[in-house]
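User: Fold this; tokens only.

Assistant: Input:
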Amino acid sequence: MKFIHISDLHLGKRVNEFSMLEDQAYILNEIFDIIQAEQPDGVLIAGDVYDKPVPPAEAVQLFDDFLVRLSNLRLQVFIISGNHDSAERLAFGSRLMGKSGIHFSPVYDGDIGPFTMEDRHGPLDVYMIPFLKPAHVRRFFPEAAIESYIDSMRTVIGALPLDPARRNVVLTHQFVTGAVRSESEELSVGGADNVDASVFDAFDYVALGHIHRPQRVTRDTVRYCGTPLKYSFSEAGHDKSVTIVEFRSKGDVSIRTVPLKPLRDMREIKGTYDELTRKSFYEGTDYQESYMHITLTDEEDIPDAIGKLRTIYRNIMKLDYDNARTRSNMEITATEDMEQKSPLDLLDELYEKQNNQPMSRDQRDFAQQLIAEIWEEEV
């Protein structure tokens, strides 16, 4: 039996004020093409379908179209809510859609049963555990000592009707201890949301969502598939993919990945304005279409740098400087002899502390002229 594992679509997301909907529509088409080629028995979508609890209409329409196309393939699709989703909104109509093979995790009520599939190796049970906080679980198990995320997950799994002799798969959306995070994920102070991987020992495969970097955690069958797109520049070096999981007899599981190529990649480049605007630098690359983080190393700020660079790099998301001024952490403090200094001397001192170098002769002449004009107007 074969499954495709995806998660963290974050439909409707904006990155640095850029809408990602066009990129998301493109990557869903890429995923659909992979699903058609692989012909799996099921698709596992491990949470964070949307980026917000109340997603924009365009995002809902995009996901609706994706699900309709999946239902036409006559396979089983399992979807859980993540921390960015509204469990109630995502579960709306789930009992009706289940007849079409589209299964949403219901709002957690303390009772999770499996969806059973059959092949020549026997039954395989799929369990769907949506994103849960300890408070969500505590209300249904008032006698249990639930103080942490790991307590809540142990309690939830302990209440499942698991048969260890059968093949068991679980979808869940949590931070499993040891996973490597990215900047685009929501973090809890001190790792308070950690769940130890040992709580999932009874499962043959754990389809995880929440962490954006594809990775295994403690063992190959406890896996984050990662986001299908890069959602921060901390992910610029990541390779995105979908995960293919194949089950044979109990304990015989194989895992592989199929790479995803985005409509626009995320790139980071660094250099002087003159270097980065030379045709020899950017021609033959994908920089002109990619989402760009550009770091200029010029000591002087370039007037309207982002506007000028955007004529070449159309999708600049972030522009900053790395020079003597930005590397200096010197604090500007008042001195006792300030009243004895001229306005030009004070400006010169301020400029040097901010930029780690004195004003040039031209800058001093311009500042002197400007100061004289201001003083004259006040008189």
